[in-house]
Amino acid sequence: MREAIAKLHAVGLVEVEANRYTRVASRNEDDYREASQLLAGYHELGEKWGVPLLSTTDRKALRKRLSQLIKRLSDGELDAVHDLLDTQGELVRASGSALFVRAEEPLRLRVEFLTQLDASKIDMVSFADRAAILGQVLAG
Q1: CB distance 78 to 115 below 8 Å
Q2: Cys bridge to 50: 57, 58, 91, 121, which one at CB 3.0-4.6 A?
Q3: pTM of the model
Q4: Strands 14-17 and 21-24
Q5: Residue closest to 124 by CA, chosen among 73, 84, 68
Q6: Phi and psi, residue 89, nearest 5°
Q7: Whole-number Å distance between alpha carbons of 56 and 49
């Protein structure tokens, strides 16, 4: 149990004060902004390193998924943001860099946690635009 809590704490999902409390981490806009900007940089690098290593079949499947995500994002579905971030995480994994994956995944989980802050403050248009650009990159 302690190890699980330590991992959640390392990702920023739990706040711990030794011998006092363990609680779900608070969410704030500054943390969201900072974490999402860093994650966007990771995902740009994942795109650069991962896309060239994808098979034609994988590219086609990702383009189809992105097309569906654009529609869901346009409809304001918050879960579509998480799905887009997970799709971008797949490109990081496709890069073949274990170190990169270990750095990206906890940050992505933190951003996904923080996106639930207030759905009305999430710029769905920007996420839909990002999905469209990624679809174009995958099309080659």
Answers
A1: yes
A2: 91
A3: 0.82
A4: antiparallel
A5: 73
A6: -65, -30
A7: 16
Q: What is the dihedral of CA 129, 133, 134, 140, to 10 degrees?
A: 160
Give residue-wise pLDDT tens across range 31-79.
Answer: 888 989 999 999 999 999 999 999 999 999 999 999 999 999 999 898 9
Please state the separation of Cα 103 from the chain's center in Å: 12
The structure tokens 């086609």 sit at 60
DSSP bridge pairs for 23: 15
Amino acid at 109: L
**Where do the H-state alpha helices sit in 12-123?**
29-50, 56-74, 78-94, 98-115
Q: Measured between alpha carbons, how far is 26 from 138 in angstroms, rounded to an integer? A: 37
